Amino acid sequence: MVYVIIAQWWKLPLVAALFYLAATRDRLEKRNLYDTYQPGEWPVTTCGGSYKTARTLDGTCNELTNPAMGSLGTRFGRYIPINNSYGETTNLYTPNPRTISQKLFKRETFKPATTVNLFLAAWIQFQVHDWFSHDPNNDPNNYLSFPLPDDDPLRATGQTNMSIRRTVRESHSGRPNTFNNINTHWWDLSPVYGQDEATHAKLRSYVDGKMKVADDGLLPVGPDGRDITGFTDNWWAGLSLMHNIWTKEHNLVCDMFKKSHPEWSDQQLFDHARLVTTALNAKIHTVEWTPALLQDDILLAAMNANWYGLGPQFLQDLIPDLHLIPGLSEAWYGIVGGQPNFDGVAFAHSEEFVSVYRFHSLLPDTITIRNHADGSHTANTYNISQYSFANAKNVIHNNKFADVAYTFGVLHNYPQEMLSLTKPGVDYTLDMGAVDVLRDRERGVPRYNEFRRLLSLIPAESMADISDDPDTVDDLSAVYDDVEDVDLLAGCLAESPRATGFAISNTAFQVFILAASRRLLTDRFFTTDYTAAVYTQEGLDYIKNSDFRAVIGRTIPELNASVHTVDNAFKPWKV
Ligand code: HEM
């Protein structure tokens, strides 16, 4: 099939745009999926227990022809050819990552986003932790180190260099380094449930399938000041909120199943509740979160098609899916409940996928808690260090839980980023802008223009091709001598025009197109086993009839009215 690159595809009429996005996805699936395991390298795993009808803790035994696929600790894949994925060496520090952070990422003026609330940021980091993480401790014996620019304000303190630990990696002869995902790749709510027996055992009450909560109904807090839950790296109040909400939701689903299946064991209740809670989370991300981030009619239709299919429900009900023509079947009935498709490559998240989720600019400098009853501001304001890591507990436990959640629902201020972060256990201050840039270079994610070429987009010939805003072009030109040097993150943040309503660039969007379908299409529990036999009909109906407003309303009943003032819980609630 001939593929013509249409730079501003969002200007096409709806149906033509949907065809174009489908063709783009098909092209990306054919050209941009690469396994970093060579034949014979995949770990060997055997399956036991209830793996056929329940998700395993470590993600093994989802794809039964390769039970290690997507499991805890396996390698990231790539969306670019393996030979293009060598980490940078000669230009690793050029231009200086600190210059990019200070000159391009540090915003001087306040830029409020008025169309989404703070749940949007908390939600995506929660999902990111479900999908991936590199080893947060990195390599204590191996540092990346570069001199600070001459005019850097940090020089006044006597500091001359900036150092960060290298990512933990595996070296191979004759091919690029690979990096392991310390989480399961599957979309399985592992941050809530834990991914190893020891962690998981601490989280379970072992009564009626439920997860442990303290007397106040919230997650217990551990001696390190963080909630006792499955994954707490880069912890902050937003993550605590998400983990509490989804733990409560799991327990409510257990109540539902306990009523209809009083004979079920604790484990049966847990397994079914996990399946339902996990699928509901994936559905909300697909048909609510993504359309809130990318507020565009074409995108809304495309995301709904991924989950529900384009066919009207009554026709889908009349004619069961016979899976006769796979592509057509998926378009008409949706991915969920259909046949899996790996496009010949084992499922794994990719380094390029990690790169486009570097959304640190979504974080607010301060959060002022508001009273959910009347919208008034309380006296409790927290800056980043006060709402992050162990301090997150002060936000959650020194305020009413409903007030914190309400604040996230109505807050829509996204001012500056965190360019001097102190992380417990890390012996240096993190400039997250510089770190984000350097990590991509270290892990062999190409610079902006090369990335575009490899993902079938037209590369920029000059800085003016990246942005149609003259000030942005000037800023880029002040830092980069050559358009080929522009880093992926810098280019994506600068890129315009964008599709109407899009909070991300069209370049980053290519990765979304590929990954959004793939993480559903390759998972047995979203495809062949998304059935009443595995989930129960009650479970499938529960997923179908719920949205994020329903989850918030159920888990924090005080907010049921507030969250229903909007048609999508990620849009600012009306005060
Ligand atoms: C206060 C909240 C947050 C803190 C304290 C935080 C901190 C960090 C730190 C310390 C790292 C690792 C840096 C390194 O590579 O050495 C990191 C990585 C990352 N963060 Fe955040 N972050 C926060 C919020 C967010 C949010 C809202 C997102 C949105 C998606 C996000 C996305 C990422 C991604 C994609 C990575 C790369 C992960 C990897 O390398 O596997 N973070 N963050």
UniProtKB/TrEMBL annotation:
Hey, what's the signal peptide range on this chain? Answer: none
Instruction: List cofactor names only.
Output: Ca(2+)
Q: Which GO terms describe its molecular function?
A: heme binding; metal ion binding; oxidoreductase activity, acting on single donors with incorporation of molecular oxygen, incorporation of two atoms of oxygen; peroxidase activity; prostaglandin-endoperoxide synthase activity
Segments traversing the membrane:
6-23
GO CC, alphabetical: cytoplasm
- InterPro entries from the xrefs? A_dioxygenase, Haem_peroxidase_animal, Haem_peroxidase_sf, Haem_peroxidase_sf_animal, Oxylipin_biosynth_metab
Q: Which GO terms describe its biological process?
A: defense response; fatty acid biosynthetic process; oxylipin biosynthetic process; response to oxidative stress
- Tell me which UniProt keywords the record has, alphabetically: Dioxygenase, Fatty acid biosynthesis, Fatty acid metabolism, Heme, Iron, Lipid biosynthesis, Lipid metabolism, Membrane, Metal-binding, Oxidoreductase, Oxylipin biosynthesis, Peroxidase, Plant defense, Transmembrane, Transmembrane helix
Name the domain of life. Answer: Eukaryota
Name of the protein described by the UniProt record: Peroxidase
From what organism does this protein derive? Answer: Mycena venus
- What taxonomic ancestry is recorded? Eukaryota, Fungi, Dikarya, Basidiomycota, Agaricomycotina
